[in-house]
Amino acid sequence: MALTVRQFIYQAYHLINPSNPTQPLHGNDQSLMLMVLNQLLQSYASTGLLITIADTVSVPVNIGIKSIAFTPQGYVITPPDPTLAQISNGRLSNLDSAWLVLSGVTYPLIMKSRDEFLAAWKYEPLQGLPRFLITYPQVDYVIGQLYPAPSQFFDFFGRGKFQLAELTSNDTMGLVPQYYHRYLMFATAKDTAMYKGRADAWTEKLEAMYQEARDIMIASSEINLSIAGDEQSLLNGAWRVRAGI
Predict the structure, then answer these.
(1) Phi first, then psi: what are they for 85, rounded to 5°?
(2) H helix or E strand, kind and range, residue 145
(3) What is the strand order of the sheet 154-162 is part of?
(4) Bridge-based pairing state of the strands 67-70 and 84-87
(5) What is the C-alpha to C-alpha distance for residues 36 and 103, in angstroms, rounded to an integer?
(6) Are 217 and 62 within 8 A, CB to CB?
(7) Distance CA 211, CA 203 (A)
(8) Rounded to two decimals, what is the model's pTM?
(9) Dihedral sign for Cα atoms in the order 12, 13, 19, 23
(10) What digits encode the pLDDT tens for the residues 46-104?
(11) Residues 6+ apart with CB under 8 A from 51
(12) Nearest Cα residue to 130 out of 235, 242, 238
């Protein structure tokens, strides 16, 4: 059974208050530790390197769809954009790979940075078999632009790491892998000790345990795997025929 966030915070608190393990949280200790916990999770999401679990997501893209928005669950983009498809699995933190599927055939997408793309390409009005995915990070979501725009129906797939939603004290830690809990508990306690003005409570022994938990957590994290190939060969004649371009 998954720990509640309240139970998780209670355990983390006693790492820096070992003198009386039965002592309850005082004043704003619980709300402070919850704030620190959420700050850590959102900070880890900045690059995705300290988020251990990657997900595969998909969305259909048809003629007229030029971009894909990776948004938090329930997020509404205003104003609506008919050229934009939406995947509500959390703000994209790190994209490992992306591809299109048409009639059982997989077409890998080459990922390019926004600056690299804008320095070399013009988007409009090309349509055909998309070859590139260019990411544009926004404050609350990330846009992935397909280039060229699709000339017919495809299924888009992407595998990456996504920003977790903020936790409340009544939530459970079920969305966070159990092997991640130990590291996150030490990290929350360490930051809270500094905020509480109790830096001396963070001992060398605790620091060694924290570093050990961090190494174990990183070792279990999915890493990027890039397959280098000849980009020009990705649009050979057979691919063009299958894609209808």
Answers:
(1) -95, 155
(2) strand 142-147
(3) 55-61, 154-162, 92-102, 105-108
(4) parallel
(5) 47
(6) no
(7) 12
(8) 0.78
(9) negative
(10) 777 777 778 999 999 999 999 999 999 889 988 889 999 999 999 998 888 999 999 99
(11) 44, 45, 93, 94, 161, 162, 163, 164, 221
(12) 235
